[in-house]
Specification:
The complex is a heterotrimer. By secondary structure, chain A is mainly alpha-helical. In chain A, 76% of the residues lie in helices and 0% in strands. In chain A, helix 3 packs across helix 13, helix 7 packs antiparallel against helix 10 and helix 10 packs across helix 14. Chain B is 47% helix and 14% strand. By secondary structure, chain B is of the alpha/beta class. Chain B has 19 helices and eleven strands. In chain B, strands 1, 2, 3, 6, 7, 8, 9, 10 and 11 form a nine-stranded mixed β-sheet that branches. In chain B, strands 4-5 form a two-stranded antiparallel sheet. Chain C has a single domain, classed as MetI-like fold. Chain C is 73% helix and 1% strand. The chains are: A mainly alpha, B alpha/beta, C mainly alpha. Chains in contact: A-B, A-C, B-C. At the A-B interface, helix 2, helix 6 and helix 12 of A face helix 1, strand 2, helix 3 and helix 12 of B.
Chain lengths: 274, 426, 296
Amino acid sequence: MNTRRLNATTLVLYGFVGLMSLIVLLPVIYMIMAAFKTRTSMFVSPLALPESLSFETFERAWGVGVGGFMVNSLLVTFLSVVVIVIVSGMAAYALSQMRGWVGQAIYLMIVAGFAIPVQAVLVPVFQIMSGAGLLNSRLALVLPYAAYGIPFTVILFYAFFLDFPKELEEAARLDGCSRFQAFVRVILPLSGPAIASAAIFQSVFIWNEFILALLVLTRRGLKTLPVGILDLQGEFTSDWPAVLAGLTLATLPLLILFVLAQKYFVRSLAGLGK
Amino acid sequence: MNIWMKTLTALAVALPLGMPAAAQDKVQVKFWTLKNPGMDEFIAGRVEAFEEANPGIEIIYEDFPNEAYKTAIQVALNGSEPPDAFYNWVGEDSSRFVREGLAMDISDYGTGPDGFQSLLSDGWLSSMRQDGGLYGVPLEAVSKFFYYNVPFFEEHDLKVPETFDDVVQMCRDIRAIDSNLVPLPLGNSERWKLIHWITMLNERIVGQEATSVDYSLSAPDDELFTNPGYVEAWEKVVELRDADCFEDAPNATAPELSYVMFSTQAAPMIYCGSWCAGIFDGDGFTDYAMFRMPPVEGGKGADGTNFVIIQGYQVSAKSKHPEETVKWLSFLVTPESGRGYAEAMSRVPSNPSGLEESESLTDSFKWIANDVASVTAPINVLDVLLDNNVSEAYLNAGVEVLNGSKTPQEAMDSVRQTALEVKNRQ
Amino acid sequence: MPQRPRTARSDGRLTYAAMLSPAIVLLSIFVFVPVALVLYGSLFRFGLTSAEWTFVGLSNYVRAMGDGVFWIALRNNIIIVVGSIVLQVGFGTLLAAVLDRGITVGNTVLRTIIFAPMVISSVAVGLIWLIILDPNVGPLVSLVKAMGLTPPRLGFLGDPSISIWVVLGIASWQYTGFMMVLILAGLQAVPKELYQAAALDGATGLRAFWHITLPAIRNILIVAVLITTVGGFKVFDLIFVTTGGGPANATQVLSTWIYFQAFNLGNTGYADAISVILLAIAVLLGWAQLKSSRRA
């Protein structure tokens, strides 16, 4: 093999991937850098480096309540994902065991739910929440998030359970387990990869969800991160460095968490395609 | 009519979803307002004082950014737990809620010595009257002026424009002094900035009498929005654009940025709301003075009119505690609250009687307060007066005229077409 | 297998019904009942706050056919779907292939960087880009000018002829890494022996990619296209934050137009009709995807 040619190819490949990384990195770097600038310098010389490293903008942005938004997002995401995994797991398992047209029909119905975007049914969803007196409660986000996370997760689990060795379940049943016990004691503990996949995938989507949260949560103390950071604009009318400082505070912790745990993120998301 | 709808919703609701309501020993008044710089502190301070004086009432307040508010309030009023009192723009927005039975007639409340009906003048109260009822408590007036950089004008011997053509000429003069200066920054990314311009241009050219029949869609079909003055108003916008008055890409520039251009002296003039004075002061730039939109030569507008929007609070028709709610709203328009509002926000309160006692109000604020008081006829902003669909057409027409993708004539054609559609659908 | 007594079978049915019911209840309340309400509402003229509903039959649908913005929104959705498939799945596949077999040092670091935007909320992404693309203070305009080029006169997001493409670019900035990781996982599952066998036949490099890699990850590519297509029809946040559907409706998509008609203009019945059209498209796409993945 010709090493020189190989080197040239490798160089091109590195160049390609490196360029893509740079395109991804630059806006993030700019966000952090410009957060240290003053409003005037941002206006007069947008490309210049900040004059000093003052954390004053970050203190102001933190004062808006970025920490609280983050806690709210964590709570809502965690609760929704727990509900999604439990409810979808049970449903997918039952479906994978059922024979005949009833199971097929229910499976198809759930799959059909996957195609329905929440934007298309926003008004009635809101009216139902409002009618149930659930506005400004976390339940008003957790329940619909769970509902909209179920179809995809059921599809994922269903495929996983179908491949599951039947003997294991049969053995558990012979040991006197009921069907439900068999599911909890035997199937679930062995479904770690599928559960992790579903949990991480749904977390990313729920963490980012905006439109329902915008309508359902109006009280400041309850707002999730996406809705909360939109308020930064209103709060610092023309103070871009403060807005960027707020965005940095809102995104950096998750980015760091991701970098530390990226192996698990990637492995879990990878499970989706299987 | 929509019994099926209700049954379906009820079915969905009947499923075990509800949460136990906590026992309340206090009357809770839910209060929604708009997020504005300084508003948070002002309201928080007032809530504290009010709850101390009225231990049986608890005020729960939520605030929203401008863009999100219109949506949130419509949705909430339609829901089962609307706020007891909510902010609104006086015009089509407030009167539609009255027509649809969502706003409460509060004529019978707030009549005592501490009530808003005694605290506010008849002129202010009349802005909230409709079909013999009283549907809200006005809080403030917002007006609009040209602000100019006084030292810059003196240095370059520029004179305050007396006609609209002078304004256009001044843009050329300022660009000639320094082409990097933006003579009149616009910031139209939210579209309402240009609508404020066109509102006043329509008044200056067409005149309020003629615009009102078009704005209310009560003109006959073949005359609706056909006055050539509307096209002429857009042509004035084109003149401004062609004289390089605005910044680059005004449709992609945030309104806030136009304020910064003025306060950092990158722009020597700006057409800006009365609320802008507080923003400029906050940015540390105070060397400015103001003048009203000058007349357009040959126009039919009346002298002494100016842009004035009244904003205030309405009470939800579903409110279970109208008395406590109005008590709170009345508390917001006491002389003391009015003064506090002016000091915190640099905005003109509906109750000016406490302003004289203030020591911190600036000269520019006093100038604005006096000017608003001297307006002979308030010109309400077009997108607050028009039906939502027509106002939407007007807002988009502005974007397209600025971009050059529609001529003034085409812009008015699209407005007229939408107006006809809406009128005939009604 | 021994014959089970009848009671065990009905016990089974009951258990399965109990296990299925939470999912069915949740889906009914938040997905199926709302769909029924949208279908019903599309036959009426009413506003979000109006008490009177007027039955208008199919005229809301007729109105959509004559509504220029509806067609712009539909076209924009298609631009975003097709553009995302080309950019996100296309570049995602290329990047994954390079990381899988092309280069060996620094893979993890590069993969981590390119995937990172996925964990940033799209509202934050929108706000960051809004500032970057700002025609007056944005660094991109300065950069373009410094390179001696002219930035678009009306601004990146203010020029109706390019703004939807700019939004597509922002979306791809966020999601290409996700596609890359998804596809990379599929690539890593391709048995190495296949490549060795192919190498013996003289297929290396691009030819191996074409003849071995692509067929081996066909299923995963279908999943990637499915996720991207559904995502393209659901896009809302990014447009809401960056352009609000403007300038003059040039970047409306179906979801923002529904939201706008229902919540800003008070044409809720009309919004319901557009919702039904969006639903029909979504269900159709879901069905097509299901068929193609079954065949695989």
